[in-house]
Automatic annotation (TrEMBL):
Stated name of the protein: adenine deaminase
Catalysed reaction equations from the record: adenine + H2O + H(+) = hypoxanthine + NH4(+)
Residue ranges occupied by any Adenine deaminase C-terminal domain in the UniProt entry: 411-572
PANTHER family tied to this protein: ADENINE DEAMINASE YERA-RELATED (PTHR11113:SF6), N-ACETYLGLUCOSAMINE-6-PHOSPHATE DEACETYLASE (PTHR11113)
Keywords attached to this entry: Hydrolase
Gene3D superfamilies, A to Z: Metal-dependent hydrolases (3.20.20.140), Urease, subunit C, domain 1 (2.30.40.10)
Length: 581
């Protein structure tokens, strides 16, 4: 489904040429700018002419016609291309629009986004309308095409049908297939997934891997089957193995895996000093992790770890653009490129003081430009408040399983034998076991078990935020769990904590029950409060948002709670099926 064959129409291209002829004035002139020239890998001075959203000239000359042109003396500033985030999960309570607006303030003007939430929650027509309309915002938005749900959902063959996958792959805003969380199925003979990889390759699109802990042999096999890049290297040795097998390696710095400083130390120890096959990503960090920056934070860490400065900037820009084959548009400051430019106070400080995105100021002299990102009417795309037309009762909160799930960290869960009495309506606070229910958002099925390690003094939590949008209930008091559910229902989706019959914390998620419509800065305040309240009740890990997200995701070991039931990841079997209500 090709929405637009070319970025600029013939009429626009003729207008761009007329700027060089002097018959049309540029809209912005950046005079005497010290900028990063990535062809020569040098800092060079030039005059940069911009017309609307495009750089039309970079060089020594000045335009003959400057009528109504904004002229800026850049003698005291340093210019680098807008940064690119190649691995965004724009649904971690925030939404793609609020993430893009926030990221622009830190110089990240292009995002390559996971499509999972769109594939699971929207019909194809509405999803593609959203992709189309995102073209009008200052940020540049590209997307992935997922090949599986990374969990065991009901009717997956419909959600991820061949026709839907093919339509996504054909869309011109989609740059890659993956990430391949379902790669074990591929190795075990899933020819449909292999066919989709082949289709992506035929369309000259990339395949993003997801290979944590993969051996050299597995990496080689996945490269043979079509993988191009992997973001799961956690040590210098793992980076080396991926580079040796021909991968582009995406270095991660995220809330759940803040690996970058250690990785860079390991690379130095191992003598890895070639950076052209390395890029940066933040892998869908939670909003509070982004408080101190996004891609700019990674560049800063790299510079502090003695990565050559130009290589540090290239890993956030032109390396990514070249890899995806979009360097004729993005990732560098040169004639013909989109006018995404960051203005820095110094080479060592990658957080920009001013930002141009598609030739529009989104940040100016350290201040956000208001109304640069107009609000979105999400309802026209089907992302409406969650409506629950069914009731939760005490009968739904009956627990009798012989074993439950134990948290090893924020996201890894193992089975454990339940030794306490779970027949009552309330559990004591002298242990860290809670009632745990996953229930269909349409009220058709549920699965009940026990959760160990989440908290020891949590009366009740209800969350419509999960991998599949189904509802999670956790707590020690069933009456409070019912109240938390009902309050979440009143909010039309969200995360609610209840204690002794009172709501103590709530975070509303009015977009399908999975996303907030608040600006990131306001969301951070609410997310911090939620984390504080959970820690006060015994949550001891780093990231409760990812805990809620990953309870049902089967790309991680060992036991997961899915729509089909309690699932053994390693043996790929449903241990206890979900119960119809």
């Amino acid at each position: 489904m090709l929405e637009q064959r070319y970025r600029w129409k013939n009429r626009q291209l003729r207008m761009h040429v007329s700027v060089l002829d002097g018959t049309t004035a540029p809209t912005i002139l950046l005079k005497n700018a010290l900028y990063l020239n990535q062809t020569f890998k040098k800092w060079m001075r030039a005059n940069i002419w911009i017309y609307d959203d495009r750089i039309v000239y970079v060089g020594e000359n000045l335009p003959a016609n400057t009528e109504n042109c904004e002229i800026i003396d850049c003698t005291e500033q340093i210019l680098v291309p807008g940064y690119i985030e190649p691995h965004a999960h724009p649904f971690q309570l925030y939404n793609p629009h609020t993430l893009a607006a926030y990221a622009s303030q830190f110089g990240t003007t292009t995002l390559i986004n996971d499509n999972m939430a769109l594939a699971l929650n929207l019909p194809k027509r509405e999803a593609f309308s959203l992709l189309r309309d995102f073209r009008s915002i200052p940020s540049t938005m590209f997307w992935w095409c997922r090949f599986d749900s990374q969990t065991e959902i009901l009717y997956e063959e419909e959600t991820f049908s061949h026709s839907k996958i093919k339509s996504w792959l054909e869309h011109d805003a989609v740059l890659q297939g993956g990430e391949l969380t379902g790669w074990p199925k591929l190795l075990n003979g899933d020819d449909m997934m292999l066919h989709w990889i082949q289709e992506a390759k035929r369309m000259r699109k990339k395949i993003e891997g997801h290979f944590p802990g993969a051996s050299e042999k597995t990496l080689a096999k996945m490269m043979l089957l079509g993988a191009d890049c992997d973001h799961e290297a956690m040590t210098g040795e793992e980076i080396y193995n991926r580079l040796m097998q021909g991968y582009m390696v995406s270095l991660r710095y995220s809330s759940i895996r803040p690996d970058l400083p250690k990785i860079l130390d390991d690379m130095k120890r191992m003598g890895i000093d070639a950076y052209d096959r390395l890029i940066f990503n933040t892998d869908g960090a939670t909003s509070t992790f982004y408080e101190q920056g996004i891609t700019d934070a990674m560049i800063r860490i790299a510079i502090e770890k003695d990565v050559p400065v130009i290589d540090a900037y290239n890993m956030a820009s032109v390396n990514i653009a070249r890899y995806y084959g979009i360097d004729h548009l993005l990732g560098n400051i040169a004639t013909g490129r989109v006018a995404n430019i960051n203005f820095l106070s110094s080479v060592e400080n990658p957080t920009p003081v001013s930002v141009l995105a598609k030739g529009k100021w989104v940040k100016r002299n350290g201040m956000k430009v208001e109304d640069a990102y107009p609000s979105v009417d999400w309802s026209q795309y089907g992302l409406k408040p969650m409506e629950l037309d069914w009731e939760l009762t005490m009968d739904d909160l009956q627990f009798s399983m012989p074993f439950g799930i134990k948290m090893e960290n924020s996201v890894i869960t193992k089975p454990y034998s339940i030794a306490i009495d779970v027949s009552g309506d309330e559990l004591t606070t002298d242990h860290d076991e809670c009632f745990f229910t996953l229930i269909d958002r349409k009220g058709k099925w549920r699965i009940n078990t026990m959760l160990k390690g989440f908290a020891n003094n949590l009366s009740a939590l209800a969350s419509s935020f999960s991998n599949t949008g189904d509802i999670i209930l956790i707590g020690k008091n069933k009456q409070d769990m019912l109240m938390a559910f009902n309050r979440m229902k009143e909010l039309d989706g969200g995360i609610v904590l209840v204690e002794e019959g009172e709501v103590i914390c709530e975070l509303q998620l009015p977009l399908a029950g999975i996303m907030s419509n608040l600006p990131m800065e306001e969301l951070m305040v609410q997310e911090k409060r939620l984390l504080e309240e959970l820690k006060n009740r015994g949550y001891s890990f780093s990231d409760p948002i990812y805990s809620l997200l990953f309870f049902s995701t089967t790309h991680l070991p060992y036991i997961r709670i899915t729509q089909q039931g309690m699932y053994d990841v390693m043996n790929k079997t449903v241990l206890f099926p979900s119960i119809m209500r």
